Amino acid sequence: MLPATEPFGSLLSRLFDMGGPVMMVLVAIAVAGAITFLYLMLMGTLYAPRLTARLKKIVTIWQQSPATVRPADLRRQVGAVGRLNPMLHLIADTIEACQHQQDSGRVRSTAARDAQQALEPFEAPLKIIEVIAALAPLLGLLGTVMGMMEAFSAMAATEGRANAAQLSGGIYEALTTTAAGLIIAIPFAALAAWIEFRLRRIHKTIDGTLVTVLNATNHVDADRPELQTPAVDTTAEVRAHRNPETAQDYPDHGRPRFAHATG
């Protein structure tokens, strides 16, 4: 039995040698995923857009009395940590643009661009975690397949003289990589789903806040009479805009209202 034992002992050594690189890769991606998650939590704590009580109060005041809102004062009143909040700059910049009566399309596109940039730092870490969750079980399966191939190849080389205990030990070593891959993939898949849910809620908060700010634009015109259009004879205006061929009035060509901040 000794000749049969020696080849299978070398089989276990080869299984460890082949499973070793796969396990090393699994450990490496697990460490990389943990570091990415910690980085994402730190970024979320400092730079995630948040609708604080102060900003809610400013938006409410903007809806009721736009002329009393001063974006420059809002930026000065917050502390160093508050200035890291992208929501502060989104609200202040949008209000400032509305007060300066900038082009409505330009204000909308700028708000959409800034909102997208506020979420960009979180997209790459989320993608890394999603890739790890998808890649870990595949690497584990690869290690198992390679180990099983080596085990049955050695068994064939010994002409079936390897006993069940020796063979089961080799298979156990091969299946270890699959278990390790699943242990890594399951928590990272759950983390990826939770992070994506949080980003969707943040996006919804940003969108709702910007829509509220932009829908109050008409109040700015009401509070600044010098920017309003002088009253005219509506009958004469209709006649001037009537198509002589179709005898139909043209639709209103006034400034469009925003229905969606990023649409």
How do the helices and strands line up, and which of them pair or pack?
Elements (H helix, E strand, L loop, with lengths): L1 H46 L5 H12 L6 H7 L8 H14 L4 H54 L6 H52 L1 H7 L10 H7 L23
Helix pairs in contact: 1-5, 1-6, 3-4, 4-5, 4-6, 5-6
Please explain how this structure is put together:
With 263 residues, the protein is an all-alpha fold. Helices cover 76% and strands 0% of the residues. It is built from 8 helices and no strands. It has helices at 2-47, 53-64, 71-77, 86-99, 104-157, 164-215, 217-223, 234-240. Helix 1 packs antiparallel against helix 5 (104-157) and helix 1 (2-47) packs parallel to helix 6. It is rod-shaped. The termini are far apart. Residues 1-6 and 221-263 have low confidence and may be disordered.
Number of E-type strands: 0
Amino- and carboxy-terminal Cα gap: 76 Å
**Low-confidence segments:** 1-6, 221-263
Mean pLDDT across all residues, rounded?
Answer: 76
Rg, rounded, reads: 32 Å
Q: Tell me the β content.
A: under 5%
Helix/strand structural class:
mainly alpha
Identify the overall geometry: rod-shaped
Name the features.
mainly alpha, 76% helix, 263 residues, disordered C terminus, 0% strand, disordered N terminus
